[in-house]
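Table S2 (continued). Query chain:
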Amino acid sequence: FFMTKRTLIKLFVLFTLLFSSKVRSQTCGNDVCELGENDTTCIRDCRLESIGLLRENGGRVDWSNRSDSLIAFDNNVTGYFEVYTMNPNGSNTTCLTCSNTLFQKHCGNPAWHPSGDWIVFQAEKNVHPGGSNFSTPGKGVYNDLWLTNANGTQFYQLTNNPVSDSIGSLHPHFSHDGMKLSWSEMYEPSVFLPLGKTLGSFKLKIADFSFDSLGIPHLTNITEYVPNDSVMYENHGFSPDGADLLFMTNWNINTLPLGNCKIYKMNLSTLACTQLTSTAYNEHACYSPDGNYIVYGSAQDNSNKGMDYWIMKSDGTEKQRLTYFNQAGYTEYLTKAYAVDMSWSPDGKHIVSFIEDSTLNDGGSIYLITFSDPLGPALSINEIIKNSNERCTIYPNPFNSNTAIYFNPIAINYKIVIYNMFGKVIQIATNFTGDKFEINRNNLPSGLYLIQISHKNEIIETEKLLITD
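Corresponding output:
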């Protein structure tokens, strides 16, 4: 019905344009790709194909980038938020945290590891003072970070915050090579004054993510960032090349928080922050797979203070409205809605999105936004390595059957030796030249291995390699 209705609207407007005695100027946002518009200047009219309900009773979402991709999401149909997975068409819903005694309260904000084998999420502590109103996935008080495998049979606690209403965790995201994890951590409670602290004070955190020799995941080398005032910093994840971190903040402690939340990106080498939005309330930014676009939620141009999706180039230019959930006359109109968390499909052709119906209970539905053509395919590992400052990168790591070492710049006459944890040589290559060295597991047992890379008898890199079952 949705597609039929959209088609009828487009035909009606097209015939009106053709047969009207008055000349009508082009208007981006009328669902007609008019003369002078194109899929760069008006993505809504010229590239957007459909917006449809995927499932009711949904929440925050993340789309795996594996070929057998699943969508992870949370919802609160059991009374508390739980973590689920489903197929991209909404079928085969599986709860990963339901009926697990480790989690007796809220769980949510799932995010996939790029391998597609693991999901990081936040979980409310089972025991703490007071209620759970501020411990939902969108608020995060009393929350820790956990990791589970894709079918919910293994769980590992990554952080264990002190039991305090001043401490919590929000919005974890893996880097696109899977070697780092970012999140927001609350360290001061919400207070009425100054105005900018009414959402509490959060810091941005980044850690190295790895598995030990027993296959247990760990966070190490944790770094904290408070770019400006001690206010709200909400993590939105890494750019595809890993150079920048997206976040939302209401810095300026004398400004009303809900009127001043803007989107920034921080260069992780220089720590310089660039403001990307400047109008209205903005939140939940997400890079397209190729890093060229950013979709975000904004209250701009909505008199009812609801939020819709906007899209801009990754440098903050060419902002365009993408949805009209809050404006009558459009097929997706919902009276009042908050377009918040979203995630792109690996091919850049779809966005799975959480449309919140109330900011008080964190509840809502999941919608699927589809483009007629992809807005940008996912970066290949070669493109990630090309933009990396590291001399070599192993991907995937950990791995099950095969992996590869990618060199930047190209390796010339390198010696590559793989050792097990007892120092025994497992594989050796001499005079290797190229940009990719493939490693097959063969019959190697699971566990931790070391890779030593040298050139002219000088060791230039030592890396850890983890094989998992």
